[in-house]
Amino acid sequence: MGVTLGELAAKFGCELHGAADQVITRVGTLSGAGPDAITFLANPAYRMQLAGTRAAAVILEERNRSDCPVASLVHPRPYLIYARIASSLYPPPVPRPGVHVTAVLASGARVAPTAEIGAHVVIGEGVTIGAGAVIGAGSVLGDGVSIGASTRLGPRVVVFERVRIGARCILHSGSIVGADGFGFAPDAGTWQKIPQVGSVVVGDDVEIGANTTIDRGAIEDTIIEEGVKLDNLVQIAHNVRLGAHTVIAAMAGVAGSTKVGERCMIAGGVIIMNSLNICDDVMFTFGSVVTKSVDEPGKYSGQLPAELSSRWQKNVARFRQLDSLADRVSAAERAVAQLQDQKKND
Amino acid sequence: MGVTLGELAAKFGCELHGAADQVITRVGTLSGAGPDAITFLANPAYRMQLAGTRAAAVILEERNRSDCPVASLVHPRPYLIYARIASSLYPPPVPRPGVHVTAVLASGARVAPTAEIGAHVVIGEGVTIGAGAVIGAGSVLGDGVSIGASTRLGPRVVVFERVRIGARCILHSGSIVGADGFGFAPDAGTWQKIPQVGSVVVGDDVEIGANTTIDRGAIEDTIIEEGVKLDNLVQIAHNVRLGAHTVIAAMAGVAGSTKVGERCMIAGGVIIMNSLNICDDVMFTFGSVVTKSVDEPGKYSGQLPAELSSRWQKNVARFRQLDSLADRVSAAERAVAQLQDQKKND
Amino acid sequence: MGVTLGELAAKFGCELHGAADQVITRVGTLSGAGPDAITFLANPAYRMQLAGTRAAAVILEERNRSDCPVASLVHPRPYLIYARIASSLYPPPVPRPGVHVTAVLASGARVAPTAEIGAHVVIGEGVTIGAGAVIGAGSVLGDGVSIGASTRLGPRVVVFERVRIGARCILHSGSIVGADGFGFAPDAGTWQKIPQVGSVVVGDDVEIGANTTIDRGAIEDTIIEEGVKLDNLVQIAHNVRLGAHTVIAAMAGVAGSTKVGERCMIAGGVIIMNSLNICDDVMFTFGSVVTKSVDEPGKYSGQLPAELSSRWQKNVARFRQLDSLADRVSAAERAVAQLQDQKKND
Fold first, then answer.
1. Are strands C265-266 and A213-215 parallel, antiparallel or unpaired?
2. I want to staple B212 with a disulfide (CB 3.0 to 4.6 A). Which of A123, A298, B234, C164 is the partner?
3. What is the ipTM, given to two decimal places?
């Protein structure tokens, strides 16, 4: 337990200023870290906290070093280095290989000997679970599911039949992958269910948040490419494709058959309509509603910021008359032009 | 396994063009279907894929038949016929009657002999489960719950005490029916909980999406009428009534005591405020916020479409000054009118 | 079973008008209550139902008493008194002390003898469960979790390692407390996960809705202060602090590191951005998107109300030209001013 600053500097390619034999056992915030903790300065908003830190060491950029009252690990990308150091100090728990006595395995399930199957797990026929995978307590895997090596399912995850999950993924508690997409044909005032016979394919290194839902495809598969990160309570509808390394924050949703490119960043509460194409490298800000395809990388917005209701209501009332206001402006412009013409002719 | 085109044409009332003895074993998309698959053309956006299809047959309207390079099943409503054919090719799995050895049943539970009770299910006192019903692994049913015949609960569904679910319903994984409504009375800066003593009544042929929540009524019941379809992550608050055959897409919510009529279509992310009345046959588009009752059928919207942030910010800044802009227009109009008057008097 | 009106009047400090020995066994609505039920009138919208009520008694304000056709309990705050009387008539079920035979307890778990541990529960090492607590069926508690006295977890709740829950809390079914926050550092087009090493601290008398998620802190803890009430499908991100007695309705979310003050009221579907400070006593109305800190108590709004799409589309089209419309108004104003000047000089 613990590593020295010298070891960290060497392992993560930083320039060390301070005692190489200082032992680090934990991480902390700039303002809260104690003398055995390492912290970082990445966001300029926290720069004023640097002078007062009591951390053992701070990961920071060269330009901030002179203001650091304690040891420092200098690197041009302190946030990334912090992430790597924290990952080394707090590795995920080592799987405890074996199948809990209360788990229920159907015939033909192939579980790697190094995988951990938790209490009350239910595993269907023909399931494959890779080396070092962890299936959290109470999870349910349908027939024919495959779980890649070193993938971790939290407690109470459900993965439906034939869904394929890659390696090194994290499926957080309560997430549901492969339930039916929402498809119905109208039938004389009622709805005829359309069987959802596709599946879901999840690439490597994907993270899926708590209580997030990803539906199986109607005919072909819903695709989550490698490196995608989904936050909590996200909805991914049937036949969506999410490009590699795209991130989606909490409470955002992507409707059916929409394709989202690679490295997109979708903020919390964003709703993306069905059957759109969003190109690579697009960012949508908080709460936007996306109604059209986007074919140009960049930052897109669609939310009006909340303000005092008294003021808001006045502007809303005007908004609801905006079309006629615009007509009035046109009329005024014509009248002015006419007056100007008359003036000229005077 | 498999059915001939001739059988399908006869059973579903289509006009067959092609070999009646062609065997169909699966469904596919226009572009992806292979020679043993049937597909359909309903959305004109996919019409251009028709010429290249390698499917065994396409379900389509008469007007598209001449462009179809393979066999066709002609019907004026191809999407509905597709839904019916797919349902016949992919029936839900047949229940495996019996109670799993790990399930926990309280005294007095009446489970039909043809029902399937999955692993680790917990069933309360006096529960009634109808013929052919399926209770997915890890589901929990409170005391006095009744589940209608042929209704299917996915894994990890929770149905609270006294809730009544109709026949032929589908409750997807993670859905929760009958948890407490959100009711508190203010009490000197704190909140006094109001017991939620009503229940939930769900009609026949209702589908409830993954991780969707439907709260029990405060005093009387929350009502979900027959044929309602709810997508994932939908919230239905206490004392809501949803009229028959209304559909609600993912991440939409209906707040307390609001009544929604029959055959309404509520798109993803819509928020409907409390204590409203929405009449029959209303459609709300993606992301709308509904703040007033609606007494006229039709299509309603409330979302601003996202656009490039640079452009968006300019319009938002103007929106925040909209009330004063409107005042300026009025002032300009008065000034113009005065100038026009003066002109006339010149 | 049952209590007299005289007992209720004495216990809850009301003035009784009517027979003191009338027995009350249940609550009802003004319109639906029968002759053994008590009801209340608090919202003026229901006043017209008073004359027709068949309840045994109505809790109401003095000013409404003369219109009440049955017995009444008079109090200046009828809704609060209703909440208290209903709570006394419908107490939560008494815990059935003991650990269900199917529950799985790790070594070192300390469960109070009066606590109830449901079927298929999984409890980690070193967990502490207080007197009279109830852990619903299928719930999972990670290592080192502590649950306060008289706290109730519904079925299938997950509480992660080291999370501390106060006394008299209610965690509804499907809620997840302490899953990883959403934190990643960009790394050459991919994302490096940042270990979430903080925890969650939940105060006393907190209620957490069905399928709601509260993430653990990145370094320090996420804090939910006493008396907070969260509805269903709410997302609380890492390092958020919610002040005492704040209420958040369904489908609202608070992004990372945002601090919300005490006694705030956040309506359904509200999205609050990250790293903001919201002061005490702030109300946000349905569907608002909050993009800036708020340092003044009051009511804030940000949603445009849905209207007929035909009308809406016209206003949206104008909104998208709003910046240029404002420029045109400025130009017209200048032209008018020039004409007025010329007029003066004529």
1. unpaired
2. B234
3. 0.96
